[in-house]
Model the fold of this input.
Amino acid sequence: MKKNIYTLLFSTLFFTSISIASSDFYVEEVSKNLIVFTQNDQQGLIVINENSSIVVDPMNQETTKNIQNFLATNDKPMIGHIIYSHSHWDRISTGKATLNKDIEVIAQQECGMYLSNNNKDVLGPTIYFQDTFKISDEGKEIDLYYYGPSHGECMIVIHLVEENLLFVPDLLHTKGASFPRDPTLPYLRPSTLINFFTELEKLAEEKEITSFIGGHKEDKLIGMTSIIAEQRIFWELIETTAVQAGEDGIINLDNFIDLKKLDLEPYQQYENYNSEDLINIIRRYTSFQNMGR
Amino acid sequence: MKSQHIIKLILVLIVIVINGCAIQPEPIKVAESDIKLFGKLKTWEIEKISERVYAYRYTFYRNFFLIGDEGVIVTDPLTVDAASILNKEIKKITDKPIKYLAYSHSHWDHVSGGQIFKDQGAEVVAQRKCKENWINNPNSNVVEPDTVFEKEYTISVGGASLEMYYFGPSHDNCRVVFLIQPDRIMFIADDANPPNALNMIYGAGLADTYVFNLVPYFLKAERLAKQKRVKSIIGSHMSFKDRPMNLVSGTIGSIKSLKEQRLFYQYTIDAVQKALDEKINPEEIPDYLIKKGVLKDTIIGFDEAKMKVLYRRMTNYLLTGE
Done:
């Protein structure tokens, strides 16, 4: 209840739409120094310091230019650091946007496998880290944590220390524990996914973090960190279902579940519920049961 | 002088023809299960490929083993049950010791059950990343390797050897290309199944597959095959002739399956790239390509539902790089 009130206050007090740079680009102020920008469906962050700004996931060339315009128009310092939350090009292709030559680009080490894959629109990281990385700039701190492959090989979690807020793209939804956006689960790493959520829960508890921001536009900008455990439980349910379905013999030769023989009730409580999606979701998990990966 | 030139030319042509249309080994069944899996298919069978090389199919999976002057090399034990059967059957064929167990990749459905060979003193070999996978997610039925390697490794048992090549992540992050010598036969687990690798694939979602390196991986394998004059490939799964459930043996076939497998991935990536270039909404690409009948006549056993998933996977890859 206390967390609910806190999140509500956080939402109503600080969110102000402060500038619209183009028809589908807009920014929202979470705190004096923390801005969430949205373009089309995607969200990233701008952290504003005295002399430079830090961008999390610049998305693409157009968005990067919009961010630069926003900073210039509002008399804010230009980009000094870029943090990649993970390696997916649709979130980090700054292209030909003119950026400071001394800019620091930070990514988790495993991203290198994809970023060295000859995409000239993606700026190569200048700093790779393994498990954790701290950015301390002009008294402000941003902590980066890597908990193993989860959504792709190298997704990190970003802790904005001053606001005591997490940025977790793709695996959490602010409305609550959800079905995934893409049921074919192209990037999901089941063998390390539960560990990712468990470590994230520990982090939230240790640092008393109650709120997070996701990587996609949603009705609610801020979600409660209690959703982390709820989302973990969702994936555990999927895994248990896949194991049980194998034991019950309701998986066909192509490794697809017979939905008619599955009790769908436990899934109906989740956001974005779609029974048909379960066919592909559970197939990924029956494959995981077979392969261990 | 002129006739000498003609003879030389004929000899060169013969060599070219022999290399290009290599006669494939005819597997001879040496043992099989009494139990049927379904239809006429038995649960398991062992086939002799050459004096040194045998293939072992258990349900829908296949491995191979080599018998040299000094011992036996076993690959991918598959399951505890499969390995137990294999062990008994090897003892009927030879009294030579099992010296090595080599893993093709880290997926449990291929590598479980190796303890029976380890107990006889076999040295277990795998690419380094496979060991990491088993440490991160252990399975009591998977015996961890004694020896790991990075790029290349060869094990020999006197007159027969197994070369292993790692070309980066592909299907799994540690799958290697097996090359059987001196028979010049390749084996790439889960892909390139003869007689034709332009078949509809089993798992269209490409779970645990590093799409970005699939085409480069097969190009490197093709280069290796050319350099080592490889003529044949053993399939780790059964291949489809024209319909998904019309199973044919496909134990061994032409190395052309290697190129076909590369083309399968290349064609699907190219089809999606073309749709993206045409500014088709990424969300709509699978339906768009299905509606246009793209690759319908190229992929054997074309399955619309699976192709939708595959096109979606390739769209995701082209947008994100992963």
About this structure: The first strand of chain A starts at residue 16 and ends at 22. The interface with chain B takes residues 87-90, 113-115, 117, 119, 122, 148, 152-153, 182, 184-187, 191-192, 253-255, 280, 283-284, 287-288, 290-293 of chain A (CB under 8 Å). The helical segments of chain A are 2-14, 61-73, 89-92, 112-115, 190-206, 226-248, 277-291.
